[in-house]
C-alpha cells in the first residue's frame, strides 16, 4: 500500500515538515531523573532518525504553580535552557522538527500550591487549588510567553500550548470549572480570552518564524463542557492570534469515557477533527488510537485531517515512519493500547516504557550489541517471553531454535486476543512472527522439547519460557463436569449454560466476564455501537459531546464474579484502565460477591459461605479464573543436562499474567547472554 498522503511534505510557509506525522506529547519520567535529559535526547533522536516529521515533548510547566507535581519539570529561567538544548541538538541531526509542550496543570496539579480559575477541587487530585487573582492570571500569560521564548533559545522549532485534557486553559474555557465574575469569567468570549491572550503573547515574543501548535479540546466528554459552537469560535480566534497548527484534544482526564485504551476503536475521534475542517485555514491534526500507517493514511487521504498525531506508537516502534516509507508495515511493532508500561507508569511516578518494546525510554541502557561468543540456544515456549528472547538473542548473533508444543505461537496472547476489546494483541503476534522469520529464528511448531535434545543437537544453553497453566482448586465438585478453566473457555472447549459463576475477580475474571457477555459483539470493531455504549454524540447536540449511554449489547447470560478477598473487585487492575473494565462489567449487570469461601459445586449450583452464612448460587457452570501456576516440569527434568538453564516469563513468576515483565525479562537476559 502506498502512504503518499501520510508521507507528503507539509508547508507552513516559514518552514516545512518532511511528512504529516506528529509524534504526540508523552511525559516519560526522564524529565525529572538525574541525567534524564541525556536519556531523553537519545529517546527523541532515535524517533527522529526513524523519520517522524514533527515531535512534541512531554509537558513542561511555565512556572512553579503549574507543575504537575512538586518535582516536575518547568522552563522559566535562562539557566534551565542548556539541558533542553541537548534534546534539540540531538533531534536536529535529522530532518525532524521538535516543539516543546507548555503545560500548566491547573487544578490537576498534584501538590498544595496548585492554582486554577476557581477554587474547585478536581476528582483526580487530593489537593484543592487556590483561585488565581486577576494579577496572577496576567502573570501566568507572561510566564507562557517567557517559557516559549526560552524554548526558542534552547533550539526548539516551536511550542505546543496544552489547551485540552482538562488542564488549566481548558479549566478557564468551561463553566464547569470557571466560576469567575471578573474579565476572565462569565460569557464564553471572556472565558476564552485566557487562551487567546496566551497565544498572542507567545507570538509577540517569538516572532513569525516559530511554530505554535494549540492543543484544542474539541470534545470535552464532561458535563458543562464546551459546546461545538464554542469550539469553532475559539479555533477562529486562535487562528487570528497566530497559531500555526491546531491539534485535537479529546476528553478531560476526569471524563468517564475511554479515549485511548485498546478497547477504543481505531481513529475513533477523527470525525470531530473533520468537523472543524473548513472552519479554519491552519492545518488540523487528528489524534487518539491511530496506530498503523493504513489508518493514518486513510485519515489524511479522506480529508479528515492534515496531519496525524501518534504518541504511544512511537514508544512501540521508533522506526514507524521509516518502515511505512519502505512499504514494510508488517515490520512495525504496533502499539496495542494496553497502557501498562506507559500511562500506568506515568501515573505511578515511574519511568515510562512500552510493553511490546522494553527499549523505549531505555535507549542508553538496553541494547543488543553483537555477542563476543555466539551460542546455540534452545528456547522452549513461543509465548511473548519466548518470542521476544528469540528475536533479541538472534539480533546479537546467537543461533536460536524456538520450540513450541502447540501448532501456533503466541502463548497467553492467543487467549488475550479473543477478549472483546483486545483484538490489538493480534498485532504483537504478527510482529514477532514476521521478525523471527526475517531474522532466521528457527521455529519448530508441534514439537515438545525433551532433555535428550540438549546433547543430541548441541545446545549451549536452554531458555525455558513454557508459561503458565490455569490454577486448579481442590474443592468438592470442581473436578467434575460443567467446571472449566478460563483457558478451556477461550479455546472453545467448554459448553456453558446461561448462568455462570466466575471464581476469581482479578484481571482474568474481568476478561472472562467481558468475553461471556460480549462474545461475537465487540464494540471495538463497530464505532457507532461503541459511541452508543459510552454516550458519545457524533452530532454534537449537547455540551461536551455527550448523550445518554446505552451500555453494551450483550448475550442473555447471567454472570456472577466471586472472590475470597473482601476488597473491591478489580482492585489490582491497571491504574488507567481498571475503571473501564469495572464500568463494562457494571454495564452488563455482572453481579459481584466478595469475602466468600467455596464449599462445593453440584447439580443445585455453587455452594459458598459469606459473612458466616451458607449461600447458594443457582448456576449451571463454573469457570476457574483464580490465577495460574508456573509450568516448570521441563525445568526440573533439565537439571541434569549439564548446560545452563534459564527461566523467563510465566515459567519464572506466575503471580499474574504479565507480558510487560515477561518481555522485559527476555530483553535483559538476551543482553546478558
Automatic annotation (TrEMBL):
Top-level taxon of origin: Bacteria
Residues in NADH:flavin oxidoreductase/NADH oxidase N-terminal domain copies: 7-329
FAD/NAD(P)-binding domain sequence ranges: 376-650
InterPro entries membership: Aldolase_TIM (IPR013785), FAD/NAD-bd_sf (IPR036188), FAD/NAD-binding_dom (IPR023753), NADH:flavin_oxidoreductase (IPR051793), OxRdtase_FMN_N (IPR001155)
Coiled-coil portions: none
Gene Ontology molecular function terms on file: 2,4-dienoyl-CoA reductase (NADPH) activity; FMN binding; iron-sulfur cluster binding; metal ion binding
Biological-process GO terms, alphabetical: fatty acid beta-oxidation, unsaturated, even number, reductase/isomerase pathway
Cross-referenced Pfam families: Oxidored_FMN, Pyr_redox_2
Cited Gene3D superfamilies: Aldolase class I (3.20.20.70), FAD/NAD(P)-binding domain (3.50.50.60), NAD(P)-binding Rossmann-like Domain (3.40.50.720)
Cofactors, names only: FMN; [4Fe-4S] cluster
Family: In the N-terminal section; belongs to the NADH:flavin oxidoreductase/NADH oxidase family.
Name recorded for this polypeptide: NADPH-dependent 2,4-dienoyl-CoA reductase
Amino acid at each position: 500500500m502506498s502512504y503518499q498522503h501520510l508521507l507528503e511534505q507539509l508547508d507552513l510557509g516559514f518552514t516545512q515538515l518532511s511528512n504529516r506525522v506528529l509524534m504526540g506529547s508523552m511525559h516519560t519520567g526522564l524529565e525529572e531523573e538525574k541525567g534524564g535529559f541525556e536519556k531523553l535526547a537519545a529517546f527523541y533522536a532515535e524517533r527522529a532518525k526513524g523519520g517522524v516529521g514533527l515531535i512534541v515533548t512531554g509537558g513542561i510547566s511555565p512556572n512553579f504553580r503549574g507543575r504537575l507535581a512538586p518535582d516536575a519539570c518547568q522552563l522559566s529561567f535562562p539557566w534551565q535552557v542548556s539541558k533542553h538544548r541537548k534534546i534539540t541538538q540531538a533531534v536536529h541531526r535529522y530532518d525532524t522538527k521538535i516543539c516543546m509542550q507548555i503545560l500548566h496543570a491547573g487544578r490537576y496539579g498534584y501538590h498544595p500550591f496548585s492554582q486554577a480559575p476557581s477554587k474547585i477541587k478536581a476528582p483526580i487530585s487530593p489537593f484543592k487549588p487556590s483561585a488565581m487573582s486577576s494579577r496572577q492570571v496576567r502573570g501566568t500569560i507572561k510566564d507562557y510567553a517567557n517559557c516559549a521564548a526560552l524554548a526558542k533559545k534552547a533550539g526548539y522549532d516551536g511550542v505546543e500550548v496544552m489547551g485540552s485534557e482538562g488542564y488549566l486553559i481548558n479549566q478557564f474555557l468551561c463553566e464547569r470549572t470557571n466560576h469567575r465574575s471578573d474579565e476572565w469569567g462569565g460569557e464564553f468570549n471572556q472565558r476564552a480570552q485566557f487562551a487567546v491572550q496566551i497565544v498572542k503573547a507567545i507570538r509577540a515574543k517569538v516572532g513569525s518564524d516559530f511554530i505554535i501548535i494549540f492543543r484544542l479540546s474539541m470534545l470535552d466528554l464532561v458535563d458543562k463542557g464546551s459546546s461545538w459552537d464554542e469550539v469553532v469560535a475559539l479555533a477562529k480566534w486562535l487562528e487570528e492570534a497566530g497559531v500555526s497548527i491546531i491539534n485535537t484534544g479529546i476528553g478531560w482526564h476526569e471524563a468517564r469515557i475511554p479515549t485511548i485504551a485498546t478497547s477504543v476503536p481505531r481513529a475513533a475521534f477523527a470525525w470531530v477533527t473533520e468537523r472543524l475542517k473548513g472552519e479554519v485555514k491552519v492545518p488540523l491534526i487528528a489524534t487518539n488510537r491511530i496506530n498503523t500507517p493504513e489508518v493514518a493514511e486513510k485519515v489524511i487521504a479522506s480529508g479528515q485531517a492534515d496531519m496525524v498525531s501518534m504518541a504511544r506508537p512511537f514508544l512501540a516502534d521508533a522506526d514507524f515512519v521509516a518502515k511505512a516509507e519502505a512499504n514494510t508495515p508488517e515490520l512495525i511493532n504496533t502499539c496495542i493500547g494496553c497502557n501498562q508500561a506507559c500511562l500506568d507508569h506515568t501515573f505511578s511516578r515511574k519511568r515510562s516504557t512500552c510493553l511490546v518494546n522494553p527499549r523505549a525510554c531505555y535507549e542508553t541502557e538496553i541494547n543488543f550489541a553483537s555477542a563476543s561468543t555466539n551460542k546455540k540456544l534452545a528456547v522452549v515456549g513461543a509465548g511473548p517471553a519466548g518470542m521476544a528472547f528469540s528475536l533479541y538473542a538472534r539480533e546479537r548473533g546467537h543461533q536460536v531454535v524456538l520450540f513450541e508444543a502447540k501448532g501456533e505461537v503466541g502463548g497467553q496472547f492467543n487467549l488475550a486476543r479473543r477478549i472483546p476489546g483486545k483484538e490489538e494483541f493480534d498485532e504483537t503476534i504478527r510482529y514477532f512472527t514476521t521478525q523471527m522469520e526475517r531474522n532466521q529464528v528457527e521455529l519448530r511448531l508441534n514439537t515438545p522439547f525433551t532433555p535428550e535434545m540438549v546433547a543430541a543437537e548441541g545446545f549451549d544453553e536452554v531458555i525455558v519460557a513454557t508459561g503458565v497453566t490455569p490454577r486448579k482448586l481442590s474443592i468438592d465438585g470442581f473436578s467434575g463436569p460443567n467446571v472449566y478453566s478460563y483457558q478451556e473457555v477461550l479455546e472453545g472447549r467448554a459448553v456453558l449454560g446461561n448462568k455462570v459463576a466466575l471464581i476469581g475477580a482479578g484481571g482474568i475474571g474481568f476478561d472472562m466476564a467481558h468475553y461471556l457477555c460480549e462474545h461475537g459483539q465487540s464494540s471495538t470493531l463497530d464505532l457507532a455501537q461503541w459511541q452508543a455504549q459510552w454516550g458519545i454524540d457524533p452530532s454534537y447536540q449537547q455540551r461536551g459531546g455527550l448523550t445518554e449511554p446505552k451500555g453494551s449489547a450483550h448475550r442473555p447470560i447471567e454472570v456472577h464474579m466471586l472472590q475470597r478477598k473482601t476488597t473491591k473487585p478489580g482492585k489490582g487492575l491497571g491504574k488507567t484502565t481498571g475503571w473501564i473494565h469495572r464500568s463494562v462489567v457494571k454495564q452488563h449487570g455482572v453481579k459481584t460477591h466478595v469475602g466468600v469461601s467455596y464449599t462445593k459445586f453440584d447439580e443445585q449450583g455453587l455452594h459458598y459461605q459469606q459473612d458466616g452464612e451458607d449461600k447458594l448460587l443457582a448456576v449451571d457452570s463454573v469457570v476457574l479464573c483464580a490465577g495460574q501456576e508456573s509450568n516448570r516440569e521441563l525445568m526440573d527434568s533439565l537439571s541434569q543436562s549439564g548446560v545452563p538453564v534459564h527461566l523467563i516469563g510465566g515459567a519464572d513468576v506466575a503471580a499474574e499474567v504479565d507480558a510487560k515483565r515477561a518481555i522485559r525479562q527476555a530483553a535483559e537476559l538476551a543482553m546478558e547472554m
